[in-house]
Amino acid sequence: MKRILFLTGDFTEDYETMVPFQMMEMMGYKVHAVCPGKKKGDIVKTAIHDFEGDQTYTEKPGHNFTLNYNFSSVRVKNYAGLVIPGGRAPEYLRLDPKVLKIVQEFFAADKPVAAICHGAQILNAAGVVKGRKLTAYPAVGPDVTIAGGDYQDIPVTDVFVDGNLVTAPAWPAHGKWMRAFLEVLGARIEI
Prior knowledge:
Rossmann fold; 11 strands; alpha/beta; single chain; 6-stranded mixed β-sheet; 29% helix
């Protein structure tokens, strides 16, 4: 069974965590949800970011999400791809050198990587966006540019693919984002 590494943390965006995790399982992948400093069976709290006509998203308490694998046991060679949800978790996860090393190893091996919303903050900190085209939540766009990436300003419902990198601005793009990631993984989807 192919494995996907799912990198998350406290106050990850609820929809960007629950939905992709379940979509990948539905497709038959074994998904290992991990967080530095936590172990299998621990929970991360999520936050729901909603678009209600304000200048930015609103934030509400989400669900508890149970981690199903130990961060310390992660070996990049054991995974077909990496998923990085957004929310507030990437803001602090990008400070962890082990997180950055894992991301760098995925890129060095040219393995598929999917990041959504603020997940690009981790990619920026890992130094893997230079010369790449990608999207993110618009407020993260300037950070992508500063890190040497070519920020793509696309509708919140769309996805952008650059080789092995699949990115989307926010959860309204889930269907397109996950479909594109599965295609890059080589999964076959028939309707």
